[in-house]
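Revision sheet: structure tokens.
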Amino acid sequence: MSWLIRLAAFVLVGSLAFAKLQGQSIAGDDDKPAEKAPEITVTPDPNEPTTLDQGTSISPTLLAVIDDNSAGIRPEERAVYFRGLKLAQETPKSNLKEAADKLQEQRRKANPKYAHVPAKDFPQFVDLFENPDVYRGRAVSLRGTIRRLTKYDPGKNNQGIKEVYEGWIYTADSNSNPAVVIFTSKPPELVLGADITDEIRATGYFFKIYDYQSQGGPGKAPMLLAGTVDWHPGPRSFVFPPISRPVYVILTLTLLVLGYGMWKANSPGHVERLLPHEEVDLTKLPPVDDHA
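Predicted:
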């Protein structure tokens, strides 16, 4: 009888141990991290035409890869980027300006606030910034003060583009926020530099909202792809560029110190005291009138 009890106990312990091992195995499978789904990269079809309307805009199919919330030009955007620059080179500037003016007029009339004001008063920069999908790949004109112009090698591409220029411009309605214009041919009057104040008009295809870093922190700027820009000599509608945060702090502290010093100098309780080595010359005091 005792051996039967021992056998039953052995079977019970073995069953419990087996169940525990099975439970651990199942739990272990559940704890394994799920495999990450492979990222799908959309590659523009090289056989897709760059434009479907004789250069008025870039084909929407190609623009499906564009992401406004990214820094720089992503690898999957490079092919469309260079095709857009090539199209801007080949499309007559007059055609682009006509398309840009027509789009601006459509946007102005569609906005009740600006439908009855002159076209020059329509805030093109603001509307572009707030509605990038409406403007994507279409012709846009921006006029303003160019504050920085650089030239660089764009890297390997199959459009034959050997050099590009990058200009940062500030328009009258941009509230000191810049737009970046990439173009392939520079007017001879424009000089390269980081502290210029020339007036230009840039007409090209709106590509994306471009993320960038500056001394004042991260920022966003509309990016246009153009063949060239128009230089406008004469009086400039200068727009001050944004001031970095450290400069703001220094200016504020300077003003506070100057203000405090002026307050102390003009306060009623301020009494000018003689220096320790200075003494009053009693012989030069006015005489006292005893009969007063």
